[in-house]
Amino acid sequence: MKVFIVLAHPEPRSLNASLAKYAVEVLEAAGHEVKVSDLYRMNFKSTVDGKDFREYNSEEPLKIFDESKRAYAGGTQTPDVIAEQEKMKWADVLILIFPMWWYGMPAILKGWVDRVYAAGFAYWVGKHTPTRATDRFGEGTMAGKRAMCMVTAGGKADHFNARGIAGPIDDLLWPINHGILFYPGYDVLPPFVTYNTFPGAVDDKRFEQIKADLKERLLTLDTTEPIPFRKQNFGDYTMPELQLKPGLEQEGETGFSIHQRAPKATGKRSA
């Protein structure tokens, strides 16, 4: 496989960076090809502005969608954006490695998404008709590829369940897993989350266990069942309203989970 790792942590001696380095070692030892974008070391530009669009006339209001679509179609995007898009197209698997800061990803990684996910590349792909929306949420440029988040969180695992103070980790990662990865077509694997990562909480013994768990996940990237998100254009949603059709959710079920399929045999979720 070809694996593209995007790392977002400012400290090269951090747990995130160490796990990224170990991931490269494991994957390459298993015969896979790996490319890494270390966003902080690259000093990756994390804000979208007129400088991203070579044909933009600064005398006019900046319309991000229009300029992004024109730049992608015309081949006039900035070289750093083009390079990241080429890595995404090259890879069979995308892995985002980042610490959870304030219930989300670091700003530099969000900026990477904002700039690299151009109109015509990651969104506004395919045709929109009254009976079919554009190629997104399970379709699109990245269809057939896989993606996974590797996340560190300061709180303990018990903080991130249905009754935990932080809320369910799957809900917290929904905007990323469903809205950023599934949107352009990736099959999204369950995240690899390391909890309780405050300074001093990860000693050598625990680090070795984390690496062992990570190795198992990395060596099964091609066989792990993805999160069973419902695809947009496969009959589960009304058109053009894009509302989940009545009766597809489990009895009494609400929230994000209704947008995942449940195996018919057991009625239980597979992810």
UniProtKB/TrEMBL annotation:
Family: Belongs to the NAD(P)H dehydrogenase (quinone) family.
Record key words, sorted: Oxidoreductase
One matching Pfam family: Flavodoxin_2
Source organism per UniProt: Coccomyxa subellipsoidea
Superkingdom of the organism of origin: Eukaryota
Protein's name according to its UniProt entry: Flavodoxin-like fold domain-containing protein
Family annotation (PANTHER family): NAD P H OXIDOREDUCTASE-RELATED, NAD(P)H DEHYDROGENASE [QUINONE] 1 ISOFORM 1
Annotated InterPro entries: Flavodoxin_fold (IPR003680), Flavoprotein-like_sf (IPR029039), NAD(P)H_dehydrogenase_qn (IPR051545)
Boundaries of every Flavodoxin-like fold domain copy: 1-218
Stretches the record annotates as Disordered: 248-271
